[in-house]
Amino acid sequence: MRSAVSRFIECVSLSNISLPEKIKHSLLDTLNENMRHPNSQIQNVAVEAFKHFVLAYLVEEKPGDRDAEARVNAVKGLVSACETLCAIKECSQLLPEEDIVSLYHMIMNEVMQSLLEALEDYSVDNRGDVGS
C-alpha cells in the first residue's frame, strides 16, 4: 500500500495538478514517512516520487517570490563580500593596480546596482514584517 501511495504521489506530481498547500504538506509528510520505512522497496519508490514532487511543488518558478528574510541575508552577504574585497587594498602590494581598479569598477557597476534594486524590495516575510 505504501508503494502504491508513493507511486500515486509521483503521478500527481508528473501531472502537475494544482494542489492546496495543506495537501502538499500532507503528501510531503507521507513521502517522508515512506522514505524512513525499513523496507528498501518502499524507500526506493518514495525517493522516486519525491524527486518529481520537489520539481512540481517545491521548486520556485519565480525567484522574485523568495522569502524576504532570505533576500535581506543575501544583501548583507553581498555587502560583507564587498567589504572583504575592498580590504585587499591594504594588501595592494600583492595585486597589480589595474586589478584593484577593475575590482572597484565591478563593485561600482554590478554590486551597487544589485544593492540599489534591493532598496526597491518591499514584501512581507513569515513574521508579517513589511519591508526588507
TrEMBL record:
UniProt GO MF annotations: beta-tubulin binding; GTPase activator activity
Origin: domain of life: Eukaryota
Biological process, per Gene Ontology: microtubule cytoskeleton organization; post-chaperonin tubulin folding pathway; tubulin complex assembly
Annotated InterPro entries: ARM-type_fold (IPR016024), TBCD (IPR033162)
Coiled coil: none
PANTHER family: BETA-TUBULIN COFACTOR D (PTHR12658), TUBULIN-SPECIFIC CHAPERONE D (PTHR12658:SF0)
Protein name as catalogued: Uncharacterized protein
